[in-house]
Amino acid sequence: MAAIPPGIRLLVSFNRDQWYRALTFMLTFLLYTSFHLSRKPISIVKSELHKNCSSVSELATMASSSSGGGGQQPSLPSLHTDVDCSWKPFDKRNYKQLLGAMDYSFLCAYAVGMYLSGIIGERLPIRLYLTFGMLASGLFTCLFGLGYVYNIHSLGFYVFVQVANGLVQTTGWPSVVTCISNWFGKGRRGLIMGLWNSHTSVGNILGSLIAGYWVSSNWGMSFIVPGIIIAAMGVVCFLFLIEHPNDLKSIHAQNSSPTTNVPTKCWNGVNGQTEMYLQYKDKTQSYDTELLLPRDSVCVPVQPVVVVKREAEPSAISFMGALRIPGVIEFSLCLLFAKLVSYTFLFWLPLYITKAAHLDAKKAGDLSTLFDVGGIVGGILAGVISDKLGKRATTCAVMLLLSAPTLYGFSMISEFGLGPTIGMLLVCGGLVNGPYSLITTAVSADLGTHKSLKGNARALSTVTAIIDGTGSVGAALGPLLAGLLSAGGWDRVFYMLMAADFFALLLLLRLVTKELSSSKSRPISTVELKEH
């Protein structure tokens, strides 16, 4: 007999529950990867929307300056961007404000919708709710790209699409966090969530690469392709997502129900009762169960059985009830400033690299993915360290403290060439996205299953939505302020980002002090690590 291949040995070593956990982990990872994949193209396309405008303006300026003062040449500035620029309405001098307003419309709708999304998500099946959101998001993402196909130049059209897309994308985060938390308990939650939350950076990287492939030739495809991808993943979600381990009980009950070749035992009723039949599988009964089963033709009196539900289904928590959970307000406000920094990089980094390093849109988009690579490492490290120390707030505070001077260094070093820029992008990505990742995943899951809830797991979606919704307010403000401040120089933008990190750190000081002074703050025990 041939030896069993080691790969097969590995596969059969996992039990059914572990396979379902792996499926849920990978599926929710891919689902939210597609969400971020569909958000990224706007930051890549920005430099293309104004690319020809700036080049034409420079051509006109050079021509007018070389003319000296000839009377015939003033007609050159009439080569106005309205005629030669590739895309209206982003061909004006205030293009940064227009692009910032478009970002703000998406993120503001996302922030407002997030507060409602968690409350709605707790009252609807997660699988159906998430499927609807992904299909609708695919539709609106494609609509933005169709603006290029059908030559649409109305700012109102693009703002409407951004607002609608922001609203439907709020279905994603509370749903996937609730689902992954249902399958994975508190044991090693920081590590698991850190690995899982890398979907944010993976989605940004893939979105940058996909959008960058078409940005110079047909930027409409930069939106249409990600829109198709997220819609397709919505179909996959409908077909395969398992919301909770308890949902599998009905499947197992059906599989274990009697089918064919099942022996039937006849019980003779007593006191005028009709015959009762009991079906069971001989080989699947335990020893204790076999002792209770009747032998051959044994008369057993039939008694009415009343099934009483042990306890009522826990009701969904209210908004104010979620706010009263210790730590929710502090972490929510901290995330507001942390996400302000992260989303400013998400929406403006490619354009900044284009202007600072003088690269084209595709190269700038490819280079910006290094920030997300650093974000993957930072998120995993934050989860591992917080698991080891048992101090979530302290881990976030240290990374926020280090990120502020790193941002200043990036603003200085980015002017000294490609090599230093690459290094600083990786470091900034890790320090900026580390706290953001930890708060939105492990911290949200911890607070959503806080002991004060007395086991009410239905609070998780609302708590997650409150924390991420508050953070999304910062995500909306960051790109908007960046668009306004960048008109006076990029230095102002970096000062704003450093100030945001400082405020985020201040908001965690009370929790950090409590963690450091508490005797209960210790590394997670072996018993806790075994809890899944």
UniProtKB/TrEMBL annotation:
Q: Which residues form a coiled coil?
A: none
What does the UniProt entry say about where the protein is found? Membrane
Q: Look up the domain of life of the source.
A: Eukaryota
Q: How does it sit in the membrane?
A: Multi-pass membrane protein
Single annotated GO MF: glucose 6-phosphate:phosphate antiporter activity
**Regions that span the bilayer:** 19-37, 98-120, 126-150, 195-215, 221-242, 328-349, 369-386, 393-410, 422-447, 459-481, 493-512
- InterPro entries for the chain: MFS, MFS_dom, MFS_trans_sf, SLC37A1_2, Sugar_P_transporter
Family annotation (SUPFAM superfamilies): MFS general substrate transporter
Q: Does the keyword Cytoplasm apply?
A: no
Entry GO terms, CC: endoplasmic reticulum membrane
Query: One GO biological process from the UniProt record?
Result: phosphate ion transmembrane transport
What reaction does this enzyme carry out catalytically?
Answer: D-glucose 6-phosphate(in) + phosphate(out) = D-glucose 6-phosphate(out) + phosphate(in)
**What Pfam families would the database entry show?**
MFS_1 (PF07690)
Q: Where is the Major facilitator superfamily (MFS) profile domain?
A: 27-516
Entry keywords, A to Z: Membrane, Sugar transport, Transmembrane, Transmembrane helix, Transport
| Family designation | Belongs to the major facilitator superfamily. Organophosphate:Pi antiporter (OPA) (TC 2.A.1.4) family.
- What protein name applies here? Solute carrier family 37 member 1
Q: Lineage from the top down?
A: Eukaryota, Metazoa, Chordata, Craniata, Vertebrata
